[in-house]
Design a protein that fits this description.
Layout: H1 9-22, E1 30-33, E2 44-47, E3 78-82, E4 87-88, H2 94-97, E5 102-106, E6 117-125, H3 130-138, H4 140-146, H5 150-160, E7 164-166, H6 175-179, E8 199-200, H7 208-213, E9 215-216, E10 222-223, H8 228-232
């Protein structure tokens, strides 16, 4: 999904290129967007599905929940949702081969008891989880007070239906927590690709283009340049 001006079409095109290099199965890439200008013709673009919720409140990525609609432009099959700012570093066939009705990343947090997932990468059968979207619209005001963002609500909704499973931990490491060394080693040690990694996810201030150059994010966090990101993110 791409909306607003944070990410340009080059992010969509890079994502398509990475998937094409790292997936041996036939696939169709779909992008839900408010602006398809500059996106390669190899990607099918659709308008972001309507939600009809309030627009005078902070953005909490609620739009991503439209992927769970029962009727999604007539699309069918197994879908692997990928955030635009990920970097694929190895073959991803396994994401379609492992069993499970709904798979998502276990959120990278020291609070390991939390069930919340990270929705940078999740897999589902299109049209089979309409209850997630329908309940969200029906109980929006209550849900937005209870859950701080879409991935927290999504995870709890799937879990309430006993369908929640996580990807193997090593498949989707966090650049921030798993690639970058802790202070003070971060000042002189180049970020690494953890063993078993398939998709590197980026959250917080550091995105792929910033990771390549390195530098300082928040006052307590320094990231040394990771030129290897550029080798994969193309």
């Amino acid at each position: 999904m791409k909306w607003g001006t944070l990410y340009g079409p080059e992010y969509v095109n890079r994502l398509y290129s990475m998937v094409k290099r790292n997936l041996t199965y036939d696939f169709k890439m779909v992008c839900f967007t408010d602006d398809e200008k500059g996106i390669t013709e190899e990607v099918d673009c659709y308008k972001i599905p309507e939600m009809n919720i309030r627009t005078d409140i902070p953005e909490r990525m609620w739009k991503k929940l439209t992927t769970l609609k029962e009727d999604l432009y007539g699309l069918k099959g197994t879908a692997l949702f990928l955030d635009l700012d990920i970097v694929i570093v190895d073959n991803i066939d396994c994401f379609f081969e492992v069993d499970g009705t709904f798979r998502i990343i276990k959120d990278h947090s020291w609070r390991s008891w939390r069930i919340t997932g990270n929705s940078s990468v999740y897999r589902f059968e299109i049209g089979k989880h309409g209850y997630v979207f329908d309940d969200f619209l029906k109980n929006f005001e209550e849900i937005r007070k209870k859950h701080r963002n879409e991935q927290e609500y999504l995870t709890h909704s799937i879990n309430d239906n006993s369908l929640l499973q996580y990807w193997p931990k090593e498949w989707c490491p966090s650049f921030k927590y798993d690639c970058v060394s802790r202070f003070p080693l971060a000042f002189w040690k180049t970020p690494v690709i953890p063993e078993g990694a398939k998709i590197i996810i980026f959250h917080g201030e550091i995105n792929p283009h910033k990771a390549i150059k390195g530098g300082r994010g928040k006052w307590y966090r320094y990231v040394k340049a990771a030129p290897w990101v550029e080798d994969y993110w193309k």
